[in-house]
Amino acid sequence: MILTRAQDIPEAARQADVLVIGAGAVGIPLAVTLARRGLRVTLLEGGPAEPPTGHEAANAGPSTGRAYDGLVSGRMKALGGTTRLWGGQLVPFSVSDIEQAAFPGQPHWPFTHADYLGHVGQVYDLLGIPQDARDPRAVWSRMSGAEAAFGPSLEVGMNLWLPQPDFARLFAAELSAAEGPMVITEAEVERLEFGHPGRLDAVHTSRGSFRADRVVLACGTIEIARLLLRAAACEPACGFAGNEHLGKWFMDHLHGFMGELHGADPEAIGNLFDYVHHRGLRFGVKLRLSDDARAEQGLCNGVVTLNPRMGLKQGATELLALLTRLFSGRGSPAATLRHGLAMVRITLPLAWRYLVRRRSSLLFSSGVAIGVEFEQLPSPQSYIFLDPAEPPATAKAGICWNPGGEEMRTVQALAQMLSAELTARGLGEVRIDPRALAGDPAFLDACHDAYHQMGGARLAASASEGVVDHDLRVFGTDNLFVAGAAVFPSGSFANPTLTALALTLRLADHLSGAGAAR
Ligand SMILES: Cc1cc2nc3c(=O)[nH]c(=O)nc-3n(C[C@H](O)[C@H](O)[C@H](O)COP(=O)(O)OP(=O)(O)OC[C@H]3O[C@@H](n4cnc5c(N)ncnc54)[C@H](O)[C@@H]3O)c2cc1C
Question: FAD dependent oxidoreductase domain: which residues (predicted)?
């Protein structure tokens, strides 16, 4: 049931088994799953039921280190959270992401890759992804008739795009149902009150106070760190005031363009990189580092994309000329026929390609840009902080984003591997940015963040290494948990939400006692 500001909050909603703070990509699935299992769940959402205009202003805060766009533009405060903005691409972490430390001293993930895939399967069940669409490499091989390996060090990887990415809509029926979680909108959490050492007694919001046996922070990486840092500064009994990892090890993915492909055969490139359509789902194609190459060369993870540059202006001009002739009755029948045939020549192969081969490409391609997306190595120099210009109780969050430069070995390796493979296959002439080819950290100036905020409350075996334990409980507390990419000890290159959801459903098992039975 959704209770907006116009509706009174029943007393029963103020005392729950589990209080989930934040109704976004992970908060909604967590609340829905726990309610299905019979727990009394209250879901507190700081924003309104529909996205407000000018939402970015509320996200503003200080930014030091590299320019970090995601602080302001990469978050939405409304029911559905950032799924109101996101693309909905689901990408699993690879074996090396989960089982191989990205840098010496990095805390381990709390499961093997096989166990992780079990939780990913739970996510796919929840989101209604059909069984035979769950292994992108198998889909790729089936659709293209080719091996997923692309030379010794690269392999084809695919992103699955959710057909309905907005979780406020995807879960609308369950959120509105009487037996679903109690969803309270415009209930901005302002204070976590710890009456007894390590015990969260009450959550104070702009719509009054709430209590629960267990409380889960699911309000996005930056806000999770803000609320924890705030409690550490203002609540002497919180149990984690001295944790030196709070807010630290903040990560995002780095995106940039590292070169161009010239003289490429569009048909051959299209066969490799055009979108794949299968069972009503769309998959984007990328080339990723193989696990073996990462292990041999000690690289962080990364992926390259080939992006057709669109001559949209040229295509739009053709289309406009045709439509004008058709609908205005102007121009000779011969000219209209000529334009009509030109459009048929463009659209017929595209229609055939989509209907028969289940592939689709960007229209009017006039060149190929080579994109690179890569992992940021975790570093304590990259962190979330409370704005020192304000009192801690009300301070906004700020970001110091500091990729160290060590990541450039991965960019350099990807550039060399891609050049070698495309040249060997006669797919065109590769021209790489000299900074990328040399592994020069100056290339980072041409990169930007990806709105994939991770870390700040990383998981670890002990409080001397991280903020939450392997059950995602905040060290030093009895009943406070964290859900989301905030707990990641490393970031891969893969869009983070599928993995955040896998950890969240694992947490749901723990909170509902289903884990032992599984
Ligand atoms: C343009 C864009 C494209 C993206 N594309 C992808 C993609 O394709 N694939 C992918 O994996 N990721 C993508 N992401 C990232 C993805 O959106 C986030 O990783 C994901 O939404 C994080 O989920 P979350 O539940 O932790 O946070 P959110 O989805 O941000 O939800 C947090 C919720 O908490 C609420 N909240 C915040 N503060 C409070 C408070 N004090 N009290 C109560 N409630 C509060 C917010 O209003 C919000 O509803 C994209 C992001 C952007 C911006």
Answer: 17-221
